[in-house]
From TrEMBL:
It comes from Paenibacillus pectinilyticus. This is NAD-dependent dehydratase. Residues 10-214 form the NAD-dependent epimerase/dehydratase domain. Belongs to the NAD(P)-dependent epimerase/dehydratase family. It comes from the Bacteria.
Length: 320
């Protein structure tokens, strides 16, 4: 059988966005992999159930693959204990199939720096989540250099968009604003912060999967213009036609609440992203692959608001 299957590990918002982008580019054979064997929405794709941290399962799930997309992750509080085995399994599966492996990464490994983020920055993270991300990326690139598997890494900043709930611009902003609740954010609203639209992230990852020039390197995926968080909120409120109260959580409050709230305790490590300018430089991607069309924030926010409205309506119907 011809190796034409595009395998996507993870069916959260990024995995689903990659699936949509592959379909847009005419890919016919797509296999989505998660632990349940079900998708949250109807899609004409193959859905496979499996645990990628188990090597035999990962190898079976990657059978006949030409490109494997690693969009999976364990719960945020379980990264150090569960993420490396998950990534190792996906890598072994791609290697066994002779497939390219495209890894959807974030920016935690760089740690706090006082300049725009570029791919040649050293990995200086000191927290456990940043160290976990750094170790996995280094292991994947080492596997590429050793000839074990062909790897490309795509990195994006904090993302938002359809399906994205667990994000700094997720449910506690879009969902709360639509319900008339105060929106919750971390740190300062007035420093520049790159936000990546989920469909732009997916578009960049699929480009890496189609370009052999991408192999063996990490790439920052193009995002729309960097604004301050307050400016992003202004665009969101403009789309909604109304403003919400804004609540910000300081470092001291995160420390205090984190004593009782595991997720906030985990987020403390990343607070620097929202206290200082956090700007993603994607010029390397553009220099190699040419000018990229990113989704303007106004359009991306419009799609995101529409998705949240539909989701809230569907939830209301389920609760009847």
């Amino acid at each position: 059988m011809s190796k034409q299957v595009h395998v996507i590990f993870g069916t959260g918002p990024l995995g689903m966005a990659v699936m949509r982008e592959l379909k847009r580019r005419g890919v016919e054979r797509i296999r989505m992999v998660n632990r349940s064997g079900r998708l949250s929405e109807e899609a004409a794709v193959e859905v496979a159930r499996g645990d990628a941290s188990q090597l035999d399962e990962a190898i079976a799930l990657c059978q006949d693959a030409s490109v494997v997309y690693h969009c999976a992750h364990p719960g945020y509080t379980n990264w150090p204990t569960q993420f490396p085995a998950l990534t190792q399994g996906i890598m072994e599966g791609a290697a066994a199939a002779g497939a390219k492996l495209v890894y959807g990464d974030n920016l935690y490994m760089y740690g706090q720096v006082d300049q725009p983020l570029t791919e040649n920055l050293p990995h200086r993270a000191t927290g456990k989540k940043g160290l976990t991300r750094a170790q996995m990326a280094e292991a994947l690139l080492h596997a590429h250099q050793s000839g074990k598997v062909r790897v490309a890494i795509g990195r994006a900043s904090d993302f938002y968009g359809p399906g994205v709930k667990e994000s700094s611009l997720g449910e506690r902003v879009f969902g709360f604003a639509l319900q008339g609740k105060p929106v919750d954010l971390l740190g300062s609203l007035d420093v520049p912060h790159t936000y990546t639209y989920i469909d732009d992230f997916a578009k960049g990852l699929v480009t890496l999967g189609q370009e052999d020039r991408a192999l063996g390197e990490a790439w920052h995926i193009p995002s729309a213009k960097t604004l301050t968080t307050r400016e992003m909120l202004g665009l969101i409120f403009d789309e909604l036609g109304s403003a919400s109260k804004i609540r910000t959580t300081s470092r001291g409050m995160v420390t205090m609440i984190g004593l009782f709230h595991p997720m906030l305790r985990e987020l403390k490590e990343m607070l620097y992203e929202f206290e200082h300018p956090f700007v993603l430089d994607h010029s390397k991607f553009v220099a190699v692959f040419g000018p990229q069309t990113t989704t303007p924030h106004e359009e991306a926010i419009r799609h995101t608001v529409r998705w949240y409205k539909n989701e809230m309506q569907a939830q209301a119907q389920r609760n009847r």
